[in-house]
Amino acid sequence: MFPTADFIRGLLVDEGISISLEIIDFYPGDSIVLPEGGIVKAFVNGYSYHSIKSVTNDFYYIYKNINERISYKIINADESILDEWLEDFLNEFSQFYARRSEGSDAHYSNLIGKTFSIEVELSEGEK
User: Fold this and answer.
1) Is the separation of the CB atoms in 52 and 38 below 8 Å?
2) What is the pTM of this model?
3) d(CA 83, CA 125)
């Protein structure tokens, strides 16, 4: 995952930093044309995390192996302990993120600005 130019511009605004440089989206495989500085996209135009996620999910659903993904897991937790289970999960995730985004082990800083979702389906069919 890569921070988008919009995300970086938003961070600068939040920090009160004003720059005259243009911040552009540049992803692995893209090339810079010198001396003009233009960018030739490798294969991704109009990059959208939502679109990539949607297509990826469709692929795994079609081939019936969605549960083999590391980023998706169906967990059958008893509804009587669901609140406690979610609270524990979120606490553990928060600790993981803190360890991986701060200090000397800050090699997961690309998680900043990303979102994830937890979908809970109750036995009555409510989400």
Assistant:
1) no
2) 0.38
3) 17
Reference 65, options 76, 56, 52; nearest CA is: 56
Residues 6+ apart with CB under 8 A from 37: none
- As a whole number of angstroms, the distance between CA 7 and CA 18 comes to 15
**How far is it, in rounded angstroms, from Cα 109 to Cα 21?**
23
Instruction: Note the pLDDT tens digit of each residue in 72-84.
Output: 666 777 888 888 8
CB-based contacts of 47: which residues, under 8 Å, 6+ apart?
4, 25, 27
Contacts of 12 (CB under 8 A, 6+ apart): 18, 19
* CB-CB contact of 25 with 47 (8 Å): yes
Please report which residue ranges of 5-81 form alpha helices under DSSP H: 5-14, 49-62
